[in-house]
Amino acid sequence: MPSIHIPPEIFLLICAEVEEPPTLAALCRTSPIFRDEAQRVLYRTIDLEGRDIRSFWSWAHAVTQNPHLAGRVHALSLQLPEDRKLAPADVTKIQRALHACVNLKELKLSCNEANGSESLHGWMLDGAPFRLTKFANTYFSSVYLEKSFWNTQSEIRALSLPRMHPSMTPAMFDAGRLPNLIAFGALPWQALPPGRPLQRLETSFSRDVPPLAQYSRTLTTLNLVRESLDNDVTLFRTITNIVGLLPALLHFGIAELVRRAGVRLVERSPATLLQGFSRLETFFLFFRNEIRFFRPHSNLIYEMDYDKDVEDLAVSIMESASPTLRRVVVGSEAQVDEVGREFTCTVTRDGDGEIHKSHAKKIDFDAVSMFWK
Q1: pLDDT in the model for residue 18
Q2: Does residue 78 sit in the same domain as residue 64?
Q3: What predicted TM-score, i.e. pTM, was given to this entire model?
Q4: Organism's domain of life (predicted)?
């Protein structure tokens, strides 16, 4: 029987429609043409967050031994072990794998321990051949990232350094070193580079919001992250201040990262406040320490340990805000038998004004944040 000729473009289209890595891996074993196209898709975006360390070593071996695979890596997310769990040979393997990805553009590094200490091996990035456009780092201690590394990364547009060391002043990220920077994340806000026309910010939830006014002409996206609790810094007061300073925001979100044992707060609903944003398109609110929200001048109370009340709060925010708002996400960590249980409700509004609801059993900050978009 004569063989059937299939144009290479068909293989490319098939692989482009496949999203699941196991399916792409299976296609690699189907035929040489499928292998080439499937590997191109499979290795373009590598996300090993939450995977066991064996997955990382397997990937590291593949890209170190196969330069054509390493050259296809465009975006890379890694969770690496603490320094004390790495042998000198392991550090060398990590460095070689990173340096092999010569066309890497997006890099996210974190520790695979919940409270892992920051690595002192920042030198591993020194001399790397790639030129990043996005860089998020909570793994390496920022003070150990060599100046020579920053001097070669002038193409960075989005940068997140939540644990930025006090010795790293905002001047290190001036227009001369990072001329293309439009998105910056750092805790606390004092680390934000002044005088830059930033479009996206991610910084601490604080009473000291006036400094954000310097970005009012260009800022479109703001994420506020709360790591500690201060009874004088309420959600309602913070949003009131932000509305006054940045009324033209397109994307706004507030997230609590840590649940404090025995802390249960009561807050006013932000629903009516969002009317002050004339162009707001998306809003998210993730909380872990609030037990209830209430609406002033009404009998409405939202108990945050109940999924239905979380949904009702999300719907009320959507219905009360500016008509430009198209997505609201509200997430809570309810306390059930002293164990935290996450729940998220997403409310969207379509072009006809109809409201749609969906639910998830986890809080996924990165999935809804517009900081990296």
Answers
A1: 62
A2: yes
A3: 0.86
A4: Eukaryota
